[in-house]
Specification:
It is a single chain. The protein is an alpha/beta fold. The chain folds into three domains: about 140 residues, Rossmann fold, CATH 3.40.50; about 170 residues, Rossmann fold; about 70 residues, no CATH class. It contains 18 helices and 23 strands. It has a six-stranded mixed beta sheet, with helices on both faces. Strands 17-20-21-14-22-23 form a six-stranded mixed beta sheet, with helices on both faces. Strand 20, helix 16 and strand 21 form a beta-alpha-beta unit. It is globular. About 0% of the residues have low confidence.
Amino acid sequence: MVVSPSTMAAVRASGAVPNAEFLLSAEGVRKEFPGVVALDDVQFRLRRGTVHALMGENGAGKSTLMKILAGIYTPDRGQVCLKGVEIQLGSPLDALENGIAMIHQELNLMPYMTVAENIWIRREPKNRFGFVDHGAMRQMTEELLNRLNIAIDPEIQIRELSVASRQMVEIAKAVSYKSDVLIMDEPTSALTEREVAHLFRIIRDLKAQGIGIVYITHKMNELFEIADEFSVFRDGKYIGTHASTDVTRDDIIRMMVGREITQMFPKEEVPIGNVVLSVKDLSDGRFFREVSFDVRAGEILGVAGLVGSGRSNVAETIFGVTPAKTGTIELFGERVDITSPTVAIKHRMAFLTEDRKDTGCLLVLNILENMQIAVLQDKFVKGGFVQESKIEEACETMARQLRVKTPNLFERIENLSGGNQQKALIGRWMLTNPKILILDEPTRGIDVGAKAEIHRLVTEMARNGVAVIMISSEMPEVLGMSDRIMVMHEGRVTGFLNRDEATQIKVMELAAQ
């Protein structure tokens, strides 16, 4: 017997909880999209008061299953049970009313509304005249944020917050529903180590209250620190479930990819050439000041620093996204004025941005249109006409090289997993044959197999003489891939470390100055 969401919500509100071994479960679930079987007879079982990690490469089906459990997708086949009772969720609102909340990898906050308005949307407190009681809403928000030890002004607009702060608002919003089940999709992808520790304290408190947490992550260290058990999916199929204490990191990787990952950081010693990019005393007047550094042909310059250090802002200014107030930029020994991304591209620069949803992907367009957009003005234009067959062939070759999982290039890019979207964006810039490649969090939200592939591609580009600037919050990536590391703190450069002297301790000492 299938119970309607409204009936189940009434049962939950009454406090009468059916006796069930699992808080939430899915059995025999199948979901197809045009040309793709996203889930093929999979299962998942979450116990009360535990953290259950869901592991797998991008495109394995993790997020698809979670969207089914959160009422976003409807399964083609199979059943979902909440506290032992089969239920059909027709919308995210159904899921929320039944105690299932999801924090998405791509944040879904409204930028021109305040923190308080985002958290309590559709649940705003009203005064006796039926209008929103903004004072009460602010007080409710302050109490919620204080309980979670999140220091954010309830009245600030979301667009003024960093990505990390927006993530914390998403977490607070999900907790505000007093849910029995909390689904977290890559919740730490934009958080510093201190913020991750804070999040884990929140998770442990929620566990103690009997809340079941589904935790999707690609970070193995997080799995062993916070998860009680894990399940692995591969190519839309369920592989297995184990207690986190029963396996090693290598065991999990083998389950995820079906093969050994022997070289996560395939850094090669390649000839370092002349200075390609020279930045001197660069400032934007707001986020960073007096930044100076050189990058040479074939060199990978890692950029490390805590969130808010100004790393991404420096990259945006170099690429012409935001204007410089003072300082100079030289390319190949000549001073240039990079006034826009178009000018930067003409100077053979490429920039993979930190936020693929807001500033990377054109979500309403297909993969081909997203990949070709940076080369339409020049490389594949002859006599004023775009050479469509040549550009499609080049994009097909690039997609195969990067192993983008898609039925064809005419699939809308929003239908791809986050990792496959990232690989398509990397393909966009590789098509331009850049001489300077700026990568801002290039492997954020990407599985271990895809990370190794991207690291190999970056190494290959350095071998071919490309000067690479790689901004990353993942310390092993910075240490494993960089020839030199530039460390920033609160908008200024605090030091440089050569590869042979760099350690995590030395980087963190410079990052915390």
